[in-house]
Design goal:
about 270 residues; mainly alpha
């Protein structure tokens, strides 16, 4: 608040911000007090974060250090490991003693720039290729499995809507990554999971036979697949299910293509 008051002199506005910070937060329906900090996810939090850390920016500029900062996540670049350790210690002291902030020790470290992961991105190779960090890819696949889980008691229309919303938002953030082959593979994996969902939804052998035949599969092949004891996941990749539910069919149902969304963002990567 003292830093806000450097520029803002309207006492009514300062009082309003103070009341906002002390209003508390709802945790599982229970009001919890906010004795310090700003509520995470609140509309005012990013602004106040940048106001407070503007002092850090100016301090690093004064030291002629190269750095990049997004909200409270930042990376500082120096020429050697010895210099990095020295800067790490001095910046930590500045944050804790001058700005009265707590540094997350688990997320803070000294390392090579080529091993750096920042905001979910990794930077590899001598020419520095931007890729999605492995942890974020695992998180993506875990979320897709949740959205396409066979036990979710929802309609396929709702499932596709939820899936498309997540995929569109995810690629909107990670569209800078240059991983065409990776996105093509993920597309195929997602389609296979959707085929598995349909196969599970059809349940009874008679329903499976009827739907497969309706989608163009021969009666003999449909019966063979309908009575198979193989897992849903294995059957989702058989020639019969791929013939009955081709990529074009899934596209007509509204399933978005991760690859196509990535290609649409070519201007963002400067590759249009």
């Amino acid at each position: 608040m003292s830093r806000v008051s450097r520029k803002v002199h309207d006492r009514r506005l300062l009082c309003l911000i103070g009341r906002y910070l002390r209003a508390g937060v709802m945790v599982e329906g229970v009001l919890q007090p906010t004795d310090e900090g700003s509520p995470q996810g609140g509309p005012l939090s990013p602004l106040l974060s940048n106001i407070l850390l503007d002092d850090l920016d100016k301090e690093l500029e004064r030291r002629c250090l190269r750095f990049v900062r997004y909200a409270d996540d930042f990376v500082i670049f120096v020429g050697s490991e010895r210099g990095a350790k020295r800067v790490f210690a001095s910046v930590q002291r500045y944050l804790t003693r001058r700005l009265k902030l707590v540094v997350n020790e688990q997320k803070s470290s000294v390392g090579s720039a080529r091993d750096c992961e920042y905001l979910g991105f990794a930077f590899t190779g001598k020419r520095v290729t931007i890729t999605v960090a492995p942890k974020k890819l695992k998180t993506f696949k875990r979320r897709i499995k949740e959205l396409t889980g066979r036990s979710r008691g929802i309609s396929m229309d709702r499932r596709l809507t939820d899936l498309n919303r997540y995929v569109r938002g995810w690629i909107g953030y990670f569209g800078l990554a240059r991983q065409f082959d990776e996105f093509v593979n993920l597309d195929g994996w997602i389609r296979r999971r959707i085929r598995m969902c349909y196969w599970k939804q059809w349940r009874r052998p008679r329903t499976k036979v009827r739907n497969l035949v309706r989608l163009g599969v021969s009666l003999d092949m449909a019966i063979k697949h309908a009575v198979s004891r193989k897992s849903y996941w294995r059957l989702s990749r058989t020639p019969a299910t791929r013939y009955a539910m081709p990529n074009k069919w899934l596209e007509q149902l509204g399933l978005l293509s991760l690859k196509q969304l990535w290609c649409d963002l070519a201007p963002l990567r400067g590759t249009a």
